[in-house]
Design a protein that fits this description.
InterPro entries: AAA_dom, DNA_Partitioning_ATPase, P-loop_NTPase. Pfam families: AAA_31 (PF13614). This is Chromosome partitioning ATPase. Belongs to the ParA family. This protein has a single domain, classed as Rossmann fold (3-Layer(aba) Sandwich), CATH 3.40.50. Helices cover 40% and strands 11% of the residues. It has 14 helices and seven strands. Strands 3-4-2-5-1-6-7 form a seven-stranded mixed beta sheet, with helices on both faces. α3 packs across α14. Bound molecules: adenosine-5'-triphosphate (ATP) and magnesium ion. Magnesium ion binds next to α3.
């Protein structure tokens, strides 16, 4: 795989995007099934109308583009996911990028929920001591007695005792909390330290069709464990100037794990996230990503929308929080692509 170059121009929008995310208004589910946040003031109604018009323009542009997607390529034909008459053995996917805040956790939750809507049984593994995946599924990590940490560090703790059901049918969670931060150091002294996650997942592999591992933003031993256990890697990449920085190092790590620890490891796909169809900047970054990674880039692109931060607060996936939103549709399309790959 070639080493990607960075886009030529720096982003002017990262700061303002962060600022707009911090102004999110949280609404009740009943109010919310579109793509826009509910806001009550007259000025916010004006903003809402403006955004609705912009969204409409973007959709019109998509139609004018004659079936060409945001990747600049025509959408590929994706077959309907075949129904399953039995479950397992699971394919393990590591959701990985050492850059922080690129949509790893959001994509793990929503891809997991969308795969479950296709009749797949899904285990989500929170492999980040921040516990954001657990929070995003409505679980308070500090209240947990046992987490993935106990499963990997204590041989007496069985994975089935720690896995819990979520509010989403077909989606289970192996939760995490800050305890996991100690594992990075403690694992160093273990025999077969890179294979620890693979070893603990083995007993449940036949219960699931997909195991999605939400990695922390680093390339340390926990991430190497996720890559060693994985069949595929999904790399969420923010459509932003600095997003390609560091990807070469990530690819290098994936190749080393493939050579030394896990020959079956493959890059399942690159997922462009936080895409803004109205900005030239997003389009330029997208073009660079497709130039560097070609067909590995999923046709599905996740747009930037405040619906995602809202779902984190709600503690559920967008597919149930706002089932008719464009964000939900995008993760459903991604699930179809993942099943087809
Ligand atoms: N498509 C999107 N549009 C707007 N906001 C988003 C989108 N995807 C994720 N977010 C928000 O961006 C923030 C970071 O997302 P997320 O936690 O999924 O990233 P991450 O890569 O897991 O971060 P970390 O590296 O810290 O684990 C969250 O507040 C999330 O709600
Ligand atoms: Mg995360």
């Amino acid at each position: 795989m070639s080493t990607p170059n960075e886009p030529a121009k720096p982003s002017a929008s990262a700061g303002s995007a962060a600022a707009s995310l911090s102004q999110v208004t949280i609404a009740t589910p009943a109010e919310h099934d579109g793509d826009e946040p509910s806001e009550d003031t007259i000025s916010s109604r004006g903003r809402k109308a403006k955004r609705a018009k912009e969204a409409k323009d973007a959709k019109q542009q998509e139609r004018d583009n004659d079936g060409i997607g945001p990747t600049g390529r025509p959408y590929r034909e994706i077959p309907d996911p075949p129904p399953l008459d039995r479950h397992g053995p699971a394919l393990v996917m590591a959701m990985c990028n050492q850059k922080g805040g690129v949509g790893k956790t959001t994509s793990t939750i929503n891809l997991g929920a969308a795969l479950a809507e296709c009749g797949r049984r899904v285990l989500l593994v929170d492999f980040d001591p921040q516990g954001a995946l657990s929070v995003g599924l409505g679980i308070q990590p500090h209240e947990l007695d046992q987490t993935v940490y106990n499963v990997i560090m204590e041989r007496s703790v069985s994975i089935t005792d720690v896995i819990r059901k979520t509010r989403v049918d077909g989606v289970d969670l192996l939760p995490s909390n800050i305890d996991l931060s100690a594992a990075e150091v403690q694992l160093v002294a273990e025999v077969g330290r890179e294979h620890t996650l693979l070893r603990v997942l083995r007993p449940v592999m036949n219960d699931y069709d997909y195991v999605l591992v939400d990695c922390q933003p680093s390339l340390g031993l926990l991430t190497v464990n996720a890559l060693t256990a994985a069949d595929g890697v999904i790399i969420p990449l923010e459509c932003e100037f600095f997003s390609l920085r560091g990807v070469a190092l990530l690819i290098d790590t994936i190749e080393k794990v493939q050579e030394r620890l896990n020959p079956k490891l493959d890059i399942t796909g690159i997922l462009a996230t936080m895409y803004d169809p109205r900005t030239l900047h997003s389009k330029e970054v997208m073009a660079r990503v497709v130039e560097a990674f070609g067909d590995t880039v999923f046709d599905t692109v996740i747009n930037r929308t405040v619906r995602f931060p809202e779902t984190t607060v709600a503690g559920e996936p967008i597919t149930t929080w706002a089932p008719k939103s464009a964000g939900a549709a995008a993760y459903r399309a991604l699930a179809r692509e993942v099943i087809a790959r």
